[in-house]
Design goal:
- This protein is mostly helical.
- It has one domain: lambda repressor-like DNA-binding domains (434 Repressor (Amino-terminal Domain)).
- 51% of the residues lie in helices and 10% in strands.
- The protein contains four helices and two strands.
- Strands 1-2 form a two-stranded antiparallel sheet.
- Helix 2 packs across helix 3.
């Protein structure tokens, strides 16, 4: 996950740095470091990605148009 994808996902969900830190179990400073593009341990990045995905984001790989994010469609209940 790229730093910009994390920031885009967080903003798309309406989460602040504090909110994402709480959801992912890392410090606010760690979220800020990721969004600045600093290197983090892979397990830390995975925790943040998992929290964003659980909250409703899909990460889009770079496929010629650049990496991105989108919100998942809500699950329909019958």
């Amino acid at each position: 996950m790229k730093d910009i994808q994390c920031r885009m996902a967080r903003v798309a969900l309406g989460l602040g740095v504090r909110d994402l830190a709480k959801l992912s179990g890392v410090s606010q400073g760690t979220i800020s470091r990721l969004e600045r593009g600093e290197e983090l341990k892979q397990s830390t990045v995975e925790s943040i990605c998992n929290a964003l995905e659980t909250a409703g984001v899909e990460f889009i790989a770079e496929n010629g148009g650049g990496p991105g994010v989108r919100l998942r469609e809500p699950t329909k209940t019958i």
